[in-house]
Amino acid sequence: MTAIRFAAMPTADARVLWNGGRDAYDNLPETMTSDGDGNPCRHCLQNIEEGDEFLVFAYRPFPELQPYAETGPIFLHKQPCRRYSAEEILPPVLTTSPDFIVRGYGENDRIVYGTGAVTDIANIPAYAETLLARSEIAYVHVRSARNNCFQCRIEKVRTPALAETGALT
User: Fold this and answer.
1) For residue 158, what pLDDT is reported?
2) Are 100 and 124 in contact (CB under 8 A)?
3) Which string of DSSP letters, residue by residue, matches 41-59?
4) End-to-end alpha carbon distance in the chain
5) Beta pairing partners, 142
6) How far apart are CA 45 and CA 55, in angstroms?
7) Which domains does the chain show, CATH number per domain?
8) What is the DSSP-derived secondary structure letter of residue 74?
9) Which element (helix H / strand E) includes 39?
10) Average pLDDT for runs of 10 along the chain of length 169
């Protein structure tokens, strides 16, 4: 069995936007006010409370432009929030829908064909473990099954002893 961790949007990415930076399309984020339903922050992985302001912007969770570097709209608290840290358990944002798309990517940041599946919430950890046990899969994205928006990333957990040798658990 492969140990996994749920990873939120990196704080460095969020900080750029909180400090007035531009999104993946070189636009300034839009500010909206949450109605309390369906506005998940990709940094703390919590739903944004009713009345709280949030940023809407284009996000590309890949290091560089290439044909498989999906870009789409996501939300972020307008005021800085703490990054999700309970990495070993299903984040709260993944309880807002009955299912999500779970898809594997290789070290080259390309989709590994045949891995994408609409997955019930309860089955996300097990399916991610199955994918990450495959040598050609470096990480997994969880995306909205309705709109394909990026939710979070799932990675293999590296143990300190094995990380030195490059082996994974």
Assistant:
1) 76
2) yes
3) BTTT-SBPPTT-EEEEEEE
4) 8
5) 102, 152
6) 14
7) 10-77 (3.30.1740), 87-161 (no CATH)
8) E
9) none
10) 89 98 98 93 97 98 95 97 94 93 98 97 96 97 95 87 46
Q: In sequence order, what DSSP letters do the residues of 84-98 get, joined into one string? A: P--TTS--GGGGSSS
Other beta carbons less than 10 A from residue 18's beta carbon: 18
For the beta carbon of residue 5, count every other beta carbon within 10 angstroms: 15
Placement of tokens 């950890």 in the chain: 125
Cβ–Cβ under 8 Å, residues 155 and 7 = yes
Question: What's the length of the chain?
Answer: 169
- Can you name the residues that pair with 144 across neighbouring β-strands? 100
- Distant-in-sequence, close-in-space partners of 86: CB < 8 Å, separation ≥ 6: none
pLDDT by residue (tens digit) across 113-154? 999 999 999 999 999 999 999 999 999 999 999 999 999 999
Residue 44: exposure state from Cβ atoms within 10 A (0-12, 13-18, ≥19):
buried
Q: Where would I find the H helices in the chain?
A: 11-18, 124-132, 160-163
How many C-beta neighbours within 10 Å does residue 61 have?
23
